[in-house]
């Protein structure tokens, strides 16, 4: 039942407003008509439109848009910090539904989809394939992820080199909490493999505002370490430091040519995805 709910959630998020993440503008012998152009020496004669020739006594090539199918691999941070809660919103649940929605979209477009799950136990890898049964298996794997421990350590990144040799679109959903630059080491590794990388950076509203409804003691979900603070006194300095951190992170990823989108977990998923696609399309123009 949980898997069916995840599938239904993905369908409801996607249906009605998403037209595609990777539609090509390449002209060729596709299915959807795009335009006519004059025949040039060397053009494939099979592309000639003989009806246009009969009407105009001139040779025209009929061009169509080609849909390009790509391989999309989703990476999900399954470390313990992804169990952070703000009221009804849990980071990992948001991440699961975000990935499920994009996987549903990719599968509907004919893209191969796969999954990496990352925590201190290692890297779980699910090969990229394109069929509905594979999508159901991906939903099953997502539903059964339990956050635990720290983020995957760099020594385990060698597993990423065992995948397909072709370039993939990698969509990484994480809170970017790390101890010794292990997440940015991962992103450097993915860049080495020449993949296109998109990072969805999840943060909760109570993290952004430092508003934990009276709590004075804070515990690190990964190490168990705790600290006591006065939220009211610390809030101004905290927000200043957070703004500096977020800007530094944005510039660091931009320097690596990695697309970055920070999302608050109280933002409706359909709106978050719409904003992401709009921003992505503007950058591609």
Automatic annotation (TrEMBL):
<dbReference type="InterPro" id="IPR036465">
    <property type="entry name" value="vWFA_dom_sf"/>
</dbReference>
<protein>
    <recommendedName>
        <fullName>DUF58 domain-containing protein</fullName>
    </recommendedName>
</protein>
<dbReference type="InterPro" id="IPR002881">
    <property type="entry name" value="DUF58"/>
</dbReference>
<feature type="domain" description="DUF58">
    <location>
        <begin position="35"/>
        <end position="243"/>
    </location>
</feature>
<dbReference type="Pfam" id="PF01882">
    <property type="entry name" value="DUF58"/>
</dbReference>
